Amino acid sequence: MTREEIAQTVDRLLADEFEIDQSLITPDAPLKETLGLDSLDLVDIVVLINQHFGITLKGPDFVGIATFDDFYRLLDTRLHG
């Protein structure tokens, strides 16, 4: 799966899960603010990513994740080592 495919899948999944317009999700957009995340929402993201990508994320994985692009990079790294 390419990084572009990861981004497209993540954008669709998060827009559906958090019921926001997918056009608000851009690489430079702030992840937490755009989705209106609280700590419980991070659990939802962890489950969603595990179900669709088979990746298990933990709280420390989110340190330094500010934008959607940061999140795509994390997933790409975890998928492709």
Structure description:
- With 81 residues, the protein is an all-alpha fold.
- It contains four helices and no strands.
- Helix 1 crosses helix 4.
- It is globular, with a radius of gyration of 11 Å.
- The chain starts with a helix and ends with a helix.
Compose a concise summary of this entry.
This protein is mostly helical and 81 residues long.
Measured as a percent range, the helix fraction is: 55-70%
CA-based gyration radius: 11 Å
Percent of residues in beta strands: under 5%
Biggest beta sheet attributes: none
Q: How many DSSP-defined strands? A: 0
Q: Spans with pLDDT under 50 lasting ≥5 residues?
A: none
Q: What's the SSE pattern?
A: HHHH
Question: Which secondary-structure class do the elements indicate?
Answer: mainly alpha
What is the arithmetic mean of pLDDT? Answer: 95
Put simply, the count of helices is: 4
Distance between the termini: 13 Å
Q: Which geometry do the CA atoms define?
A: globular
Features:
globular, 81 residues, 60% helix, mainly alpha
Set out the fold topology.
Blueprint: H1 3-18, H2 31-35, H3 39-53, H4 68-80
Helix pairs in contact: 1-4
